[in-house]
Specification:
By secondary structure, the chain is α+β, with helices and mostly antiparallel strands. It folds into two domains: 196 residues, Thrombin, subunit H (Beta Barrel); 104 residues, Pdz3 Domain (Roll). Helices cover 16% and strands 39% of the residues. A six-stranded antiparallel β-barrel has the order 1-2-3-6-5-4. Strand 18 and strand 19 form a beta hairpin. The radius of gyration is 23 Å and the shape is elongated.
């Protein structure tokens, strides 16, 4: 065996070990006519794709060792295409998760499991790490990953796995036109915790439309070193948290809390770090003069029909 052959053989053996480790927490979810894949998130809970869960009870989960466990729906979030199932019993091999955000060029595997083929995998690299993104139901996901790996039928709800055998995220169909995306590990786990506790995702809501604007130099503070841009409020829902706090069309938002706001997506990301009921201070310019408001954030309504424009 040549040195190159040994090198390739070592890599191949390493890949086999990765898939064996991750395969232990990759399960089959039978919650519709066509089975899907899931991730054993906790010893008694499974993450999967929301679109793959068509019934709330009489769900069957097949573990990696072939054992069948009954489950029921604990919660679902159509916006991120994530669902959590509560198992009737306990399993052994819960997933380990990548702590750091995925990086461009990172080698990853998408995993699936079925009764016929067993564990399946495709290989690729991370091609995009970005966000936020407006999803097809009209809501927003904070971050997402896209890879160049092919996903076949049944891969929905399965893990995206790194070269340590850790889950870097969960594979879903959440983007515009239901394009395949991966919810990063931190976002998937945070959303799943909400679903397990509340049955739905609790997302903070302000209730405005806005657009980025450049500030006149006279509005940048006495030193001229203040923020050069802000968010012009173009619409306010009357009964929204923003409306109740007194925010009006024509106001320019400079800061939300301690965060300078320079574009619409920045405000969305900041809201995602808060929860309904949290108070948020807004530094604004109104009629050429600085003012401040305090808003008690509400809960984003669902369905999101009136928020398809992506208003925060």
């Amino acid at each position: 065996m040549t040195e190159i052959e040994r090198y390739v053989n070592d890599i191949s053996g390493g890949f086999t070990g990765i898939l064996k480790k991750a395969g232990a927490f990759t399960v089959i979810v039978e919650a519709r006519r066509m089975p899907a894949t899931g991730i054993l998130w906790k010893e008694d809970a499974v993450m999967t794709a929301n679109h793959a869960v068509k019934r709330e009870k009489d769900i069957k989960v097949v573990l990696s060792d072939g054992r069948e466990v009954s489950a029921e729906l604990a919660g679902r979030d159509p916006v991120s295409d994530l669902a959590v199932l509560k198992l009737s019993g306990r399993a052994d091999a819960a997933a380990t998760w990548q702590e750091k955000e995925a990086e461009l060029g990172q080698i990853v595997f998408s995993l699936a499991r079925s009764r016929e083929e067993g564990l399946q995998a495709t290989f690729g690299i991370v091609g995009t790490v970005a966000g936020p993104m407006h999803t097809w139901p009209g809501g927003i996901i904070e971050r997402y990953i896209q890879t160049d790996g092919t996903r076949y039928l049944g891969f929905s709800g399965g893990p995206l796995v790194n070269t340590m055998g850790e889950a870097a995220g969960i594979n879903v169909y959440a983007g515009p036109g239901r394009i395949p995306l991966t919810l990063p590990a931190h976002l998937a786990q945070r959303t799943a915790a909400d679903l397990l506790e509340h049955g739905s995702r609790k997302t903070a809501f302000l209730g405005i439309n806005s657009q980025a604007v450049e500030l006149d130099p006279s509005l940048r503070g006495s030193s001229g070193s203040g923020p050069g841009s802000g968010l012009l409020v173009t619409a306010v829902d009357r009964d929204s948290p923003a409306g109740k706090a007194g925010l009006t069309v024509g106001d320019i938002i400079l800061k939300a809390g301690d965060t300078q706001v320079v574009d619409h997506n920045g405000l969305l990301r900041m809201l995602m770090e808060n929860k309904p009921g949290d108070t948020l201070s807004l530094a604004i310019i109104r009629g050429g003069k600085p003012e401040s408001l305090t808003v008690v954030l509400g809960e984003r309504p669902f369905p999101y029909e009136r928020d398809r424009c992506g208003r925060p």
